[in-house]
Amino acid sequence: MVSKRVGGANSQSTLTFKLIDASGNAIQTPTELALSLDDASKKAGVLFDDGTDTKRKTTGTEGAISVIVKAGDIPSPVTVTVTEPKSGVNASSWGVAVSSGKAVQDQVSLSADKSSLEAFKIDNVTTTLTFSTADRFGNPVPANAQVNFVTIGGVVTGSNNGTCQLNASSQCSVTFRSLNGTGSPQNGRVTVLAYMSGEESFTDKNGDGVWQSGESFVALGKPYFDANWNGIYEPTVEQVIASGVPQDTGLCPTESYPSVPNTCDTSKWRDDVLVRSSHFLVMATSNAAITKVGARKIDGFWVWISDANTDSTLKLVGTQLASNTVFKDVVSTSTNPTINTLLSDAGYLSIPFLYDNAMPSGSTITASMDTGGAKCTVKGTNIDKFPSNQISGMLVFVRLGSEADCTSVGVSVTVKSPGGVSTTSTF
């Protein structure tokens, strides 16, 4: 049998030993036997059901005794040795192990098969979310441990309503379905938070698998739902997930995934917290916004492509230095340009705003010549579609053939959504 620790409750195994004579027959005379756990088992936190690591039991008329061992937190082989004190004859158990422990915070991940959905003002568009975890030794967490989900702007459906249970591979999946109610974010940005019972990460300096005072750990406080993606808890707009979380008043470290400020227990490592992971989804429009940025050169030019949502919270800061942004590689006629300078280089007299939501995952990007009889040739784009994990707009380079008229002819850039909606801009 395998003994595991599941969700904070000690799992257990029952071991049976039989006292026999040289002919293999059970010794029917009641005999007291001594039982003990080996050092490796004890260091792993394994104990008998009464909390001890040694005990004595007397056989019955069938010559047998049974003992219950309870798992600790550390994966380890479990060995129980039984000795007949008068003769010194002994035997040990085999095939018993603690195979896994609790989910640990630095071994938690939430992913989506598509992170940007063609779902702005469209219901019932889906993506699959997969939660994966492991214990602190990289072993699977015991199957059937439950994972909970919280979101706004959609519905999460799993094997048990809005939850799922880990499988033998220590992961489980749910379906997110878009739902454009009155509370849905107008900027199209949706957060999904997944959480389950687990333990804090710590640095095991001496390699014994057990936290001791002096070993560093990452304290976790109450998780919250980061609705606006900024990593800062805002009590007026963001929901706290408090169930089952120890409340304290310690200052939370910046990497606490995230935690409500001043709710961390920094005095000791804890194995009774909610480990958590967030994933951001975009409910994208079908139409694209395509804006040329930077000076056009004979070999091509850059365009910024996003969805057509112009909510003010998505607006990029034009006064930022391009060198500190995704625009750092855009060619400019100026030294150390800002984003606004790049737009001016592109010929805009009235500076347009750039917005930052991705087009739906899989949207295609193509370019073609718009001027008849041109010698210039279009060599394509450096990116031909929006990746499945993209949640922000993208810089795309339109490659031209460097013919003499490539700085003056018209070139069209077309973005087509998975639903078949095309947007074309000509430059």
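Next protein, fold it too.
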Amino acid sequence: MAVSASDLNILLNTFIGDSSTDRISAAERLAFHTEATFWLLEELGNEHMVDSYDLSFVNGVHQYKITSAVADLLVGADLRQPEEDHYMSFTRKSSRELAEELGNAQITRSWAIDRYDGDSYLMVSHKTPNPSFQIATFDTLTADGGGSTWTVDAATSDATNATADSIEFKQGSGCLNYDLDVSQDGTNRGTVYNDYTTTLDLSQHEDLSSFIFRVYIPDVTYTTSYTLTWSSDASGTPGGLTNYWSASVTTAANGTAFVNGWNRIKVDWPDATMTGTPDASVIQYLQIDVNYGASQGDDTDYRIDDMYITKPETLKFHYVSAYLGVDTNGTDINAFTATTDVPFFSGVYDSYKHVVAHKAASLAFYSLRLRDEALVEETEAFRALNRYRKNFESGKTREEKSFKVAGVNLANTRARFNRR
């Protein structure tokens, strides 16, 4: 049988002994049901509340911004790796513990949820078995492509003064360093390129893999994007290619905005635009552009280091959804605003309506300063909760104790009424 917010109201009215809106308005009743249902979500975590998200994991990138992709994240449940037709679970750790391990280069097949600055991040310590291939080390200007030279495009871009930097780098023994002279060409772009003497066979990565590399931005204020171009044309030069792939990114590999200093960049081959008929088995030209706004000034010490290509591995992230239910149009909601709204447990575990209504009654009584009545209803809510907790399997693992849903004062509510 389907349960709606109207059915919750019927129980609430019974528990508080009042169906009028003299003391408690219709809007307040819906607000109490909202907070009570969030409380149930946080406390119980049954399997039918668990949703999933496919994470495209690549070696070397251990933090993924999931604020938009998993906007309904309440708490994490599990991270699983497909192994033939079975799934292998990762170990759940605190974000602090995992950050320390990653800082010490310890790969432990584990995961954590990190939340800061209003965003959510999935942290993963893992090394995928999928193939990876080193594209460029940038240790010296001639370290890559069979001894060919990394060169700045001083004719059609603002890049100038390419050098090998053995002081500030991320991998190997050095990185590529170059400057910007914005009056040199005025294209709002700084370009470096390499016409490889030795070709790269990337055919097993075509339309599947991601290019990963590091860039150092001295001042990120006007930086807008990075563009990677790869081509099978021989003796390629900027602007002279006829057969190539090209793709731009506007954020760092983990989904965050570019920052001053080192950034890891991820360019996905499936997102690239193909021009002409390039051959992935004989790649012999690479080009990297930093793009910026018209207000960009001259600057020094842009850097590039450690480029490789790797095939992503899909990991299945399971989490408890923060959506309370749906409206009459079937749209997910995070607050009840109409008596026709349907809670998440409707048609699955209809008995939860008693837990929610008792909790809502305790909130209603507390709002009226009827403390004893509030405590009685809180006790009834926990009794019902514990009864169902035994009967229904949980799919939730705990996060930090300080976590709560924004705008819902679960901690204060529990502190007022907790009599377990």
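About the second fold: The longest strand covers residues 189-200.
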